[in-house]
Every structure is written in structure tokens, then in C-alpha cells.
Amino acid sequence: MASKRCFGIFFFLLFLIIIGVTIICIIAKDGIKHQETYPFWQRTIVYQVYPRSFCDHDGDGTGDLQGILSKADYLKELGVGTVWLSPIFSSPMADFGYDVSNFTAVEPLFGTMDDFDALRAALHDRGEPAAGVGLRAEPSSDEHEWFVKSRRREEPYTDYYIWADPKGFDEAGQPIPPNNWLSVFRGSAWAWAEERQQFYFHQFLAKQPDLNYRNQRVREEMMQVLRFWLDRGADGFRVDAVKFLFEVEDINQNESIAIDPETDDPLDYYYLNHTLTINQPETLEVVREWRDILDQYSDRVMIGNEGTIDDDIASGDELLRQRQRFPLERLSPFNFLLIDRFHNRKRL
Ligand SMILES: [Ca+2]
Ligand SMILES: [Ca+2]
């Protein structure tokens, strides 16, 4: 009788073990399936590397691509699956690489195109890591060939940038900018070009003229830049300053003074309410064009810089509402301020 009961308990336990193992196998298989199903940018930790400061390999005092390469094992140890590089393009470094003089060349301070290829290969060799490129599609440098030719009115570059006649001349004979638009870095967003006798628009430094994205040739040039890096094996782009791509077409409009300005300095960027120079609806057209190019390649990501998305939500920004309807796989947001807002449990 006792042995029959023991057998019963034994088979019951065996049954439970079989059920348990089956459930574990199903969960594990599902997990593996998810690992295989999700794209790399959803299943890996994305780690931003700022090349200037990350690791200096040749000892000249500035970080470089070979320095990052030398840390490939360290990055893997950290559990990093995707490395995204801040801009490595050729640059006079007026804004530490965010002023691009050639979108399809590596800045010599950081190394060579061979170094980029070697870094990408090293990251891929260590499993699934990928190398994304930080794209600063706006603005270029005033030392970019396009701007040098545009300033000379050399076709087809004449309208590659945003040029405007002065509104008039002051008593000292100095040209007056066409409107009150301000640079993010303070002061008028218009700089005078003696050679062309016109102002050009710059959202950031005067050495960073804004490209004219209303010019189809400019859009095609930038699409070629994307193709160049994708063909080179870049696994994606983080697109910086995307909300600054477009300004209103009619430059005869002044921006209004902020309702509750953070400053009483009329030359400070935050003195004005920026409705004419950021977040214009045409931005999404360009983002769609770029995403369509990425979709011609397999498993590539585009991350948009949306650093002030919470402010845009607060102001009921129409473009933001459009972006929220924009499928996430088209442009994944990069938004530390939004994360911070959640972290601090503030109400959105
Ligand atoms: Ca170096
Ligand atoms: Ca712009």
C-alpha cells in the first residue's frame, strides 16, 4: 500500500517536472526567437562614443578611431551591442566636428576611412555590435566646397544655402539683416558675405551656414551622403539637429518675443519664441526620404535627435503631434530630456 502511494507521488512529481521543463523550454525558445526577430537596435545596448575624448591611440592628445578600435573588447565586456559615433566627418572643428567640410571623408584628426572600416569590422566580429554614424545634416561648414562655390554664385551651388538681401543699411552704412531671427549661440542668425553682398542664414555659428533644404539638389546631395555611408557598411545614423532643417520660406517675418522669456537680453536665443525657424512641417518629408533610402538596405536604423521633445509637447507643437503618428521604425527618437522627465516623475 505504502509502495503504491510512493509510486503515485513519484509519478506526480515526474509529471510536474515534465510540465515545468516544457514551460521553461517554450519560454527559452520564445526568448531566442525574440532575439532573432528584433532588429539590433531594439535588442542591444546602444553606446554613444564621442571620438575626441574616448581614447587617443596615437598620443597626439585627441581621441581617434584606432583608439575606439583598441577598446572593442572592453565595449563587448560592458554588454554594448551597438556603437554610435558622434560625427567623424572632415571638419575645421569650429564646433568640434558639428561643422562639416566634407560629409564623405573622415576627419584626419580621427584617422582614415580604413580606420572606420577596421572599426566596423572589429565591432561586427565581436558578435552583433554595429557602428552607427552621427550625421550632422544641418549645417555644413563655411569651408565646405558647396558654400565656397555658393558664396561665389557658382552654379549649381548658388542656392545651396539660404541667402538674403539686406533689409536696408544703417547710418554707418552697415547692412541690416532681413529679420530678427537669432542664432542658438546668440546674436543675429544672419552673417554678411562681402563676396556675394548678401546675408546667409546660420542657426548656430557663423561658420556653420544652414543648407537650403528647399533646393532639391541639396536634398539629393544629402541622400547621396547617406548612400555613401550605407554602402560603406554603416549600420545607421543618428541625425542631429533635425528640427532645424527648415525655416519658413517667407523671411520677411519676425519671430515674436517669448511670452515669459528666460532672459532680458534681446540677443539671447531664448528671448524669442521660435516658431518660424524650427519644427517646420517639411522636416518630415526629408526624414521620409532618408528612411526610404535606409529601407533599401537591410536592418539599418535612423535615430533622430529630439532633445527638447518635452518642451515641444508642453507647447502643443503640431509637428510633434505629427511625429507621434509617424511610425517609430521610421525615425526612432533620441530624447534624454524626456527620459529625465519620467525619471523625476514630473507630469508631462
Ligand atoms: Ca589621436
Ligand atoms: Ca535650416
From TrEMBL:
State which residue ranges cross the membrane: 7-29
- On the tree of life, the source organism's domain of life is Eukaryota
Q: Which UniProt keywords apply?
A: Glycoprotein, Glycosidase, Hydrolase, Membrane, Transmembrane, Transmembrane helix
Instruction: Return one Gene Ontology term, BP aspect.
Output: carbohydrate metabolic process
Q: Does the keyword Disulfide bond apply?
A: no
The enzyme's main class, written as a single word, is: hydrolase
Matching SMART domains: Aamy
Pfam families hit by this protein? Alpha-amylase
Q: Which organism is it from?
A: Penaeus vannamei (Whiteleg shrimp)
Gene3D superfamilies xrefs: Glycosidases, Oligo-1,6-glucosidase, Domain 2
Q: Which Enzyme Commission number(s) are on file for it? A: 3.2.1.20
* Regions annotated as coiled coil: none
Which Gene Ontology terms cover its molecular function?
alpha-1,4-glucosidase activity
What name has this protein been given in UniProt? alpha-glucosidase
Q: Where is the Glycosyl hydrolase family 13 catalytic domain?
A: 48-343
What family does the Swiss-Prot or TrEMBL record give for this protein? Belongs to the glycosyl hydrolase 13 family.
* InterPro entries listed in its UniProt record: GH, GH13_cat_dom, O16G_dom_2
- Record's catalysed reaction(s): Hydrolysis of terminal, non-reducing (1->4)-linked alpha-D-glucose residues with release of alpha-D-glucose
